[in-house]
Amino acid sequence: AELERQRLKRQKELEEKLIEEEVARRVEELVAKRVEEELERRKDEIEAEVRRRVEEAKKIMEKQMLEELERQREAELEAQKKKEEEEKLKRKELEEIMAENNKKIEEAQKKLAEEQLKLVEEQRRMLEEKQRMEEEDRKRKKREQEVILNKKNARPKLSFSLGGK
Questions:
Q1: What pLDDT shows up at residue 154?
Q2: Fewer CB within a 10 Å sphere, N or C end of the chain?
Q3: 46: pLDDT confidence band, cut at 50, 70 and 90?
């Protein structure tokens, strides 16, 4: 009788277990069916929400991209401005160097012209001195010639006397 009672108890437990499993399976199927029905019923609403979120994310990304492009454009403008300033500064420095060089060239040319003028003046003075000396030499030779030829009574008279006193 004890064995029979244990066998019946096990059979009852087995039946209860099978019933539990069947109930769980049916509940699971029912839940899945209800979820599917609910999803089907709210399909348009869910798709609309997904589209709305996608659009929102898209707008945020577009805004971020536009902001990034604007930052890049401003950075490029700033770099261009800086480059132009540097070029302007270099151009100014070069102009100053050129002006300084032109001034030095002008001073050197002026100095050279002064030296050439001094040289020409010296040559003129030497030529005048040479001409003066040549003129003096010519006059001296002429006087000597006159003395020799006794022109204009340039020579004192000589008197010779013969006879004694």
A1: 55
A2: C
A3: confident
> Looking up tokens 């798709």, which residue turns up?
47
Helices 2-41 and 43-149: crossing angle in degrees, nearest 10, is 50
Rounded CA-CA distance 30/79 in Å is 68
Rounded-to-integer distance, Cα 111 and Cα 117, Å: 10
Domain for residue 93, yes or no? Answer: yes
Q: What are the backbone dihedrals phi and psi of residue 18, each rounded to the nearest 5 degrees, phi first?
A: -60, -40
Question: Is there a contact between 146 and 152 (Cβ–Cβ < 8 Å)?
Answer: yes
Q: Is 49 among the domain residues?
A: yes
Distances (CA, A) of 24 to 15, 17, 31, 132: 14, 10, 10, 148
Q: Contact, 147 vs 155, CB < 8 A?
A: yes
Give CA angle at 50 (46, 51), nearest 5°: 115
Beta strands in the chain (DSSP E): none
Helix (H, G, I), strand (E, B), or coil: what is residue 31?
A: helix
Q: Confirm whether 157 is domain-assigned.
A: no
Structure-token pair, residue 13: 């437990």
- For 94-124, the pLDDT digits (tens) are 999 999 999 999 999 999 999 999 999 999 9
